[in-house]
Write a structure and sequence with these properties.
Blueprint: E1 2-12, E2 17-26, E3 29-34, E4 43-46, E5 51-54, E6 56-61, H1 74-83, E7 86-91, H2 102-115, E8 119-124, H3 138-144, E9 148-150, H4 159-172, E10 176-178, E11 191-192, H5 195-200, E12 204-205, H6 207-224, E13 228-230, H7 236-247, E14 252-256, H8 258-262, H9 284-296, E15 301-302, H10 311-314, H11 331-343, H12 347-354, H13 356-362, E16 378-388, E17 407-417, E18 420-424, H14 429-432
Parallel strand pairs: 1-4, 1-5, 6-7, 7-8, 8-9, 9-10, 10-13, 11-12, 13-14, 14-15
Antiparallel strand pairs: 1-2, 2-3, 5-16, 16-17, 17-18
Length: 434
């Protein structure tokens, strides 16, 4: 099958391309990239005025299958990813049962091949049952197709176990992703410890709980030389520790979520449980520090931490509701509007953190760039288009986002996975085929 995309503005930070090009896709691969192509094709797509980027990659997604299919499935999560411009998503292992055995890893891969429109890479657990007591069979999980390891949602408090896990992950050439939380400081915590928690009379989660474990992981990586990736950083102190680590040459990478870049603890004054997340939304000072670290490349990656929950679970109120924000369909529009358009954040750096950054960490042979001969994973974006976050239009089975009802400037026009259109925004049907 031949697809010709005409007159789009190609922005590919990995390939250092920023300009108008035509793209020819043949049988799932990028066949040509030239300023002007005149080719016969099965379909010609007019992308005049639109941005074309590598397909977005989410390092941190919760798909809930197996075990909690009422919240999300591989199919619904895959469709949500496609609507959000993502062509590859990494699903975390805290399913039921936990992805700590090779047969579960293979089952997730098999289900994804059959039902997901986008590529799904399973992240296996570091420890059996995510209990932090005994390592999972990491080598077997890697052979089964695991793309990395994490006990996300649960910290690995045993430093000796963490050290051994880092060593094995390094030998396997796969990332080890750590959820940094000192749980002795977060028990009964609901939101960030500070002014808002005191006003609402709710248990607080202090910044120190994250920073202690960030420091522990950095020290292990520094002393033993094995890489570690820090999930969903949220505090200024964590950024400071990361900066010290990089200056010392420590092999450490980090991610930040859209909600930690865009929202502060102040939004919780309304008591909205859809804004309850772990780590919690922090202060304006923390947000500024995270943005600066992302802009300079100190923080490598933006990851959604897509964590769907049912309305019934969330409506019990701020104190008792589970942690988690639904993020796949809101990530790019919210970042384009609130970070790029309103705050002047560099567009190229944003796209890099959503494409080349995660592709590098995952050591993907194809992905994170648009290159002749590689798999054609693409996202077409209208920077001036409008996206309204409505419950009825979301592909995800859950709608727990504090952005519900918001309208953003920036919309996904089309998403291509392996050269096939897996999402097309109906608002652009006439424009694309003109």
């Amino acid at each position: 099958m031949k697809l010709l995309i005409k007159k789009g503005h190609l922005l590919d930070p990995a390939e250092k391309v920023d300009g108008q090009f035509d793209l020819l896709l043949v049988d799932g691969l990028v066949a040509e990239i030239k300023p002007d192509l005149e080719e016969k094709a099965d379909r010609i797509i007019r992308a005049d005025g639109f941005l074309i980027t590598p397909g977005l990659i989410d390092l941190h997604t919760h798909l809930r299958e197996p075990g909690d299919e009422q919240k999300e499935t591989i199919e619904s999560g895959g469709r949500a990813a496609a609507r959000g411009g993502f062509t590859t998503i990494c699903c975390m292992p805290n399913t039921r049962p936990v992805n700590d055995r090779s047969e579960i890893t293979r089952e997730i891969i098999d289900r994804a091949r059959k039902s997901s429109p986008v590529r799904v890479l399973p992240i296996a657990s570091v420890s059996r049952g995510e209990q932090g007591q005994e390592l999972s069979p990491m080598a077997e999980l890697a052979l089964a197709g695991a793309a990395g390891f994490s006990d996300d949602g649960q910290p690995i408090t045993n430093s000796a176990l963490m050290k051994k896990a880092m060593e094995i992950a390094a030998q396997l050439g796969l990332p080890l992703i750590d959820h940094c939380e000192e749980t002795n400081l977060t028990r009964n915590g609901v939101i960030n410890e500070g002014r808002v928690s005191r006003l609402l009379k709710l248990g607080g989660i202090p910044a120190a709980a994250e920073e202690i474990m960030v420091a522990r992981d950095i020290i292990l990586a520094k002393d033993f030389g094995w890489p570690v990736h820090l999930a969903h950083l949220s505090t200024r102190g964590s950024v400071g520790l990361l900066g010290w680590a990089r200056a010392e040459g420590v092999p450490v990478t980090a991610e930040v979520t859209p909600h930690h870049l865009l929202l502060t603890e102040e939004v919780l004054l309304t008591g909205n449980p859809d804004a309850k997340v772990n780590p919690p939304l922090r202060t304006e000072e923390d947000v500024k520090s995270l943005r600066q670290a992302l802009e300079t490349g100190l923080i490598d990656i933006i990851a959604t931490d897509h964590a769907p929950h049912t309305e019934e679970e969330k409506k019990v109120g701020l104190e008792k509701a589970p942690f988690g924000i639904n993020g796949l369909e809101t990530a790019l529009p919210s970042l384009l509007d609130l970070l790029v358009k309103k705050e002047g954040f560099p567009l190229s750096r944003l796209i890099e953190a959503l494409t080349a950054g995660p592709a590098k960490l995952l050591a993907l042979k194809s992905g994170g760039r648009i290159k002749k001969g590689q798999i054609a994973d693409l996202t077409i974006i209208d920077l001036e288009g409008k996206t309204t976050i409505r419950r009825e239009s979301m592909a995800s089975k859950s709608h727990n986002t504090p952005f519900l009802g918001a309208t953003f400037t920036g919309s996904i026009v089309m998403t291509f996975a392996s050269g096939l259109p897996v999402y097309q925004n109906k608002n652009y049907d006439k424009t694309l085929n003109a």
